[in-house]
Specification:
Structural class of chain A: alpha/beta
Radius of gyration of chain A: 23 Å
Keywords (chains A, B): DNA-binding, Transcription, Transcription regulation
Distance between the termini of chain A: 47 Å
Largest interface: A-B, 54 and 54 residues
Protein name (chains A, B): LysR family transcriptional regulator (Chromosome initiation inhibitor)
CATH class of one domain in chain A: Alpha Beta
Helix content of chain A: 40-55%
Family (chains A, B): Belongs to the LysR transcriptional regulatory family.
Strand content of chain A: 15-25%
Number of helices of chain A: 13
Number of strands of chain A: 11
Shape of chain A: elongated
CATH superfamily of one domain in chain A: Periplasmic binding protein-like II
Oligomer: homodimer
CATH topology of one domain in chain A: D-Maltodextrin-Binding Protein, domain 2
GO molecular function, one term (chains A, B): DNA-binding transcription factor activity
Chain lengths: 289, 289
């Protein structure tokens, strides 16, 4: 049987990003934490932690952490069957797309987290990286736009987020005085979330435009909205995120006929325990728009 | 003299995240873009691009890209002296802390970007990584909480952001019925931005609490606010970001006497040209709170 005290030390050092704080969290001295990791590495015959330039697990350490997380989830089920066992909140590591986190996610899971005493460890990833991290066992679930299944995991459709091309009215008057056109797209600065973001390209392709266009890069949902609201560019935003700004007249669609729908899927490991099953059941009833 | 067509091909492939889209952007075939990169690698005697699992520059490629960016900035100055030269918008790559991007940044730089035709390439990094990327020449400037100078770069203080410990009134009534206390901190789930985020620890230390506490991890400014507003946890948020929610009674400080001040600094390469100097002058006049 694995000595879970050693895995707990590894998990806590990563979570706390340091030996001293991990010691505080565990009620141990810093050197006792070090000693546990050393013991773990000796037993394993290889390092579990990279110290420089940042504390991070080695691939072997990552596998151990994932195992530790799965055991914690199973223990949680056990505890609800045997409530006299000492309790501690489980932490669920989930890869999630930025726009969900900036819009419907918190309202959807709020009551669930409170009722279950669940702590979230959220990781923002684009879908390819998120699914890879699920496959590698680094996260317990992944919320993304891909329905590509992962062996051993389930994939549940959650619904669709709706995006519109928003900008300030002043921006639209300046760059799109006659509405969308090839000439306008060529010169109007757009805002793109990152190099993997395809929404802007999909929108332009839908409009029949396939040429180059100037754009800002802004890998933050909230920053994206702020740049648009400051008149710096136009971009594809979830209606839900900017409904108040649209209502107040600060943002408007530059092409009210156009909308892009992005389906979202919830991927999670089968046999990860009842908590994830319940969370999945709850997410299946959420309205995304 | 370097053949800048080759560097442009490299920069465009990275920006567009693909050879086909880079070709479209440059008005070239995909194979012409490939050929330019091959030529560059032959001249350099080493690869500039990693193809798998994601397109990204090698360390050598990164140096070339940084050089290319600096040349573009210098060209921009030249163009304003010689306005008959063909013009194209420069793109400025800046590392920035997430909370600035979620609050004051866009309003501060909006007019400047419009007037100068400047495109932003924003990268969200915590301060240590941001400063390292500046030192490595991957970004032209870094906005962060560290005043640690980088050789060859200037460091300008921009002012202070003010953080308070906010939660919903219902959350405060449930977890802090008698106000902040050791027992309350031990059980109340907090929200922490990421493992490098020290605000929560600083707040607790200020309150005289040094023990363990349960927390959610949420590496998104907007997601952070949404989790708090959904009653999932409490956390340190910039007053400016949540002023509307506080006014509407949806969030309140659980300890109105406490505030944390975070100074912000703007680091940028000397001799990067007049555009960065003007941006710096403009940022020096911004009100952060």
């Amino acid at each position: 049987m694995i000595d879970y005290k050693l895995l707990e030390a590894l998990a806590t050092v990563i979570e706390c990003n340091g030996f001293e704080r991990a010691g505080e969290a565990l009620g141990l001295s810093q050197s006792a934490v070090s000693q546990r990791l050393k013991t773990l590495e000796v037993r394993l015959g290889q390092p579990v932690l990279i110290r420089h330039p940042h504390l991070e697990p080695t691939p072997a350490g990552r596998r151990l952490l994932n195992h530790y997380q799965q055991v914690q989830l199973l223990e949680r089920d056990l505890r609800s069957a045997l409530p006299t066992l000492e309790t501690a909140s489980p932490r669920l590591r989930i890869a999630i797309n930025a726009d969900s986190l900036a819009t419907w996610w918190a309202d959807a899971v709020g009551r669930f987290c409170r009722d279950e005493g669940l702590l979230l460890d959220l990781v923002i990833e684009d879908q390819d990286v998120g699914l890879r991290r699920l496959r590698d066992g680094e996260v317990a679930a992944c919320l993304c736009a891909s329905d590509q299944p992962i062996a051993g995991a389930r994939c549940v459709p959650l619904g669709t987020m709706v995006y519109h091309p928003y900008a300030t009215p002043a921006y639209i008057a300046r760059y799109f005085p006659q509405g969308p056109s090839e000439a306008a797209f060529r010169h109007a600065p757009a805002i793109v979330y990152g190099p993997h973001d395809q929404l802007q390209h999909r929108f332009l392709a839908q409009c029949g435009y396939h040429g180059a266009f100037p754009y800002h890069l802004c890998p933050s949902s909230e920053g994206f909205v702020r740049l648009a609201a400051a008149g710096i560019g136009y971009g594809m935003m979830p209606h839900r995120q900017v409904a108040d700004l649209v209502k107040a007249g600060q943002l408007a669609s530059l092409d009210p006929q156009r909308r892009l729908e992005v389906p979202l899927y919830w991927h999670f490991w089968r046999h990860s325990g009842a908590l994830l099953e319940r969370l999945t059941g709850m997410l299946g009833e959420v309205q995304l728009t």
